TrEMBL record:
Pfam families according to UniProt: PDDEXK_9
Lineage, opening ranks: Bacteria, Pseudomonadati, Bacteroidota, Cytophagia, Cytophagales
The name this protein goes by in its record: PD-(D/E)XK nuclease domain-containing protein
InterPro entries: PDDEXK_9 (IPR012547), tRNA_endonuc-like_dom_sf (IPR011856)
Length: 161
């Protein structure tokens, strides 16, 4: 498959029909049903077909993908499952998401489970990223407008084995 630098998709209905047909063929060939969701992002409406789409961190994964970063979700290991893995030329990032806990707890899980250890022999920088999403919201008012923000905390640490 040749990766193109710019999109040739122009008509939303035609493009969506193309992808829906493509996913139906995948489902038939792989003998599995993919979940379908629609996410509103700052770049517009994004359609996602996949497995584990009920995860609370899906929008973050889609954002990385839209930025051109190859990101793997729910990566199985011998001692658990990484929420996200990004492999780049010189760096491997392991991202763990938490809900109403702490970013530090997410990083501790990466360390305790040894998620980055399999990449230690590859002479790359290993980075653990913990992201905590808060289910609470903060209201900011002004000029008869109220904006709701979810609280997100994050922490990063470099891991060496």
């Amino acid at each position: 498959m040749k990766i193109k630098n710019k999109s040739s998709f122009k008509d939303e209905k035609t493009d969506l029909s193309y992808f829906e047909n493509w996913v139906r063929q995948l489902e038939k060939n792989n003998d599995r049903q993919y979940e379908r969701i629609e996410i509103e992002t700052s770049l517009g409406k994004t359609h996602v077909w996949g497995l584990h789409t009920k995860e609370e961190h899906l929008e973050t994964l889609v954002t990385f993908s839209l930025l051109g970063v190859y990101i793997q979700s729910e990566v199985q290991t011998s001692d658990g499952r990484m929420d996200a893995l990004i492999r780049m030329k010189d760096v491997v990032y392991c991202i763990e998401f938490k809900l109403d806990e702490s970013a530090e707890k997410a990083i501790q899980q990466i360390k305790d489970k040894g998620y980055l250890q399999p990449f230690s022999a590859k002479n790359k920088k290993l980075v653990a990223i913990g992201i905590n999403f808060s289910s609470g919201r903060i209201e900011v008012g002004g000029n008869n407008k109220v904006v709701f923000y979810s609280v997100v905390t994050s922490a990063t640490t470099r891991i060496e084995y």
